[in-house]
């Protein structure tokens, strides 16, 4: 029976902020290969990622806090991927979607990065070739859980190693 009286809800400010962040992730508009088609399907009405507050794909990394690496990443694309990641404001998160992004997949060759965790810190890996939209949603829910529980990002692979990625137009050290 409804009495019309309000209860009292107590929480910590940090928990409230983490809940807010996890419920309003804005992914960067960024697809690399066939996995991106599944990522697009995740936004469509059948799967509807809007239920989790993440339907606002942003064309500018400055407005995004989630990078879904959907597809294989070539060596030539690696500096671009890193630059987009660097342009995203903190706090930010990365999902490696599919076998190619997670470990190179079937492309065990010199042209493909053997896992994007060599370039950016990856919070959630999603297996499969391609992973279905349901799998992406499951991975996304796992990321939300990590954010709500305050689990920090993994170490940045480039900061750890001190390496710098050079783009095609940048000067190489002599
Ligand atoms: S994991 Fe499969 S579907 Fe995804 S980019 Fe690689 S080859 Fe394409």
UniProtKB/TrEMBL annotation:
Give GO BP annotations, semicolon-separated.
aerobic respiration; electron transport coupled proton transport
Annotated coiled-coil positions are none
Provide the alphabetized UniProt keywords: 4Fe-4S, Cell membrane, Iron, Iron-sulfur, Membrane, Metal-binding, NAD, Quinone, Translocase, Transport, Ubiquinone
Q: What EC identifiers does the entry list?
A: 7.1.1.-
Q: Where in the cell is it found?
A: Cell membrane
- Catalytic activities: a quinone + NADH + 5 H(+)(in) = a quinol + NAD(+) + 4 H(+)(out)
> Which GO terms label this protein's molecular function in UniProt?
4 iron, 4 sulfur cluster binding; iron ion binding; NADH dehydrogenase (quinone) (non-electrogenic) activity; NADH dehydrogenase (ubiquinone) activity; quinone binding
TM spans, by residue? none
One cellular-component annotation, GO: respiratory chain complex I
Q: What membrane topology does the UniProt entry give?
A: Peripheral membrane protein
Quaternary context: NDH-1 is composed of 14 different subunits. Subunits NuoB, C, D, E, F, and G constitute the peripheral sector of the complex.
Task: Give the protein's recorded name.
Answer: NADH-quinone oxidoreductase subunit B
Question: What is the native source organism of this protein?
Answer: Thermogemmatispora tikiterensis
